[in-house]
Amino acid sequence: MKRTAFFISDGTGITAETLGQSLLAQFETITFNKLTRPYIDSVEKARAMVQQIDRAAEVDGVRPIIFDTIVNQEIRDVLATSNGFMIDIFSTFLSPLEQELTSHSSYSVGKSHSIGHNSNYMERIEAVNFALDNDDGARTHYYDKADLILVGVSRCGKTPTCLYMAMQYGIRAANYPLTEEDMERLQLPSALKKYKDKLFGLTIDPDRLTAIRNERKPNSRYASYAQCEFEVREVENLFRRENITYINSTHFSVEEISAKILVEKGVERRLK
Amino acid sequence: MKRTAFFISDGTGITAETLGQSLLAQFETITFNKLTRPYIDSVEKARAMVQQIDRAAEVDGVRPIIFDTIVNQEIRDVLATSNGFMIDIFSTFLSPLEQELTSHSSYSVGKSHSIGHNSNYMERIEAVNFALDNDDGARTHYYDKADLILVGVSRCGKTPTCLYMAMQYGIRAANYPLTEEDMERLQLPSALKKYKDKLFGLTIDPDRLTAIRNERKPNSRYASYAQCEFEVREVENLFRRENITYINSTHFSVEEISAKILVEKGVERRLK
């Protein structure tokens, strides 16, 4: 059975979407058609939403699930006329929080909750620039400014992980690809030795690595299973020899890898 | 008054953190010290958390707010012994959802909710690679494969926005910097003309642009207010002349800019 789920917000929809996704993930036997609808910030847009919801109810033969974080009461009232099962996230939690904090929320006084520009902006852009400038061993003379340096074979997931940590947490993460040369020398490149406490290793299953490398350079030696298997094995040996903590990225999402690295290294996020 | 808030999870903590952040943002008069604690997945770790929570309660002189998404009942029971005000996100919503969906959740049967590796992984990595390979006008012959092409002056926020859209939504976004030459020619570069329907403009306040460029090239003509003001004015004229939808990034977060672009262009996310 297919069922439609809407994540509806007067802002970006990120909160409704994140919470909705993880709640729906608990129902493994049901297939959801998930639709995010941000910036529903007027009665007119809400009326158009009601039509969409009711249409989905008709097509599916069952009412859609609605996760919403809309501040304006009038807009919520319009949505409530739809044939959907509403999970009103803010209403549920803000009332107990107001009691506990003995304070009125912007929500209950009808103010919007835009995050907008804040002090985090520059910090985050700086972190993204740091990740880009220090990607793939491009330069190593700013490693003193790095919070972390990811190491691993080419295409094991270092770049997306560094970018995610920069974007989400404001962490300055460089990354350095370990090459065959480094493996044959049986030691860390000298640029990294000084910063051993900042190093974190990523590894990956050879078949996955072969698949990823083949996307880039089909049928090359670089992408062959034998080469991938060799590199991964040697790098894991190097990690163990040098006592570098590492994780295998194969079965984790970028979010999971990033969260695990921060816990392991005890690095606190810079964005608040 | 300062008050501590914990976002506690047996997974990445992203759901607890996202929801907690947006709920706390509704209380503008209170300063929160926010701490995310992912991978609290054993009774031992939960006991250590209880100590941290109780210590914060003592220091603050008021009990901390706890947002949690922990699946295991035993671990939640340990946390509940702390001197914190618990907002148990899953417990609150899963019971009504189970009723509506007439289905048991993994939560209620005690299974963990790891997202893990899924079909999204390659899609996302591809999108990040696309953003990196097609960053800053580096190449233009893959624009047929782009979902979107962001245009604007140098350092107006194109790269972080493209990377965010890639990471979060799997959108393939290229970006192209408009230079003085393009402005003086009073027209779009020929590489872009063919793809006018994919273009979206970013603009920025000249003082913010000056500040950002000064970080990169201090005291250069490039970073001068006069130059920034000129470029922004000319690019906005170009956008209007060519009928390119654009937004001013100055007062929005990367999340907000990205969500607005998707709505404006009617592009659906590729990650589900």
Automatic annotation (TrEMBL), chains A, B:
Reported function: Bifunctional serine/threonine kinase and phosphorylase involved in the regulation of the phosphoenolpyruvate synthase (PEPS) by catalyzing its phosphorylation/dephosphorylation.
Name the record gives this protein = Putative phosphoenolpyruvate synthase regulatory protein
Q: Which domain of life is it from?
A: Bacteria
Entry-linked InterPro entries: Kinase-pyrophosphorylase, PSRP
* Record flagged with keyword Nucleus: no
Which parts pass through the membrane?
A: none
The terms under GO molecular function for this entry are:
ADP binding; ATP binding; phosphotransferase activity, phosphate group as acceptor; protein serine/threonine kinase activity
Q: What family name appears in the similarity comment?
A: Belongs to the pyruvate, phosphate/water dikinase regulatory protein family. PSRP subfamily.
The catalysed reaction is:
[pyruvate, water dikinase]-phosphate + phosphate + H(+) = [pyruvate, water dikinase] + diphosphate; [pyruvate, water dikinase] + ADP = [pyruvate, water dikinase]-phosphate + AMP + H(+)
UniProt: ADP binding residues:
152-159
Please provide the record's keywords in A-Z order: Kinase, Nucleotide-binding, Serine/threonine-protein kinase, Transferase
Q: Tell me which EC number(s) this protein carries.
A: 2.7.11.33, 2.7.4.28
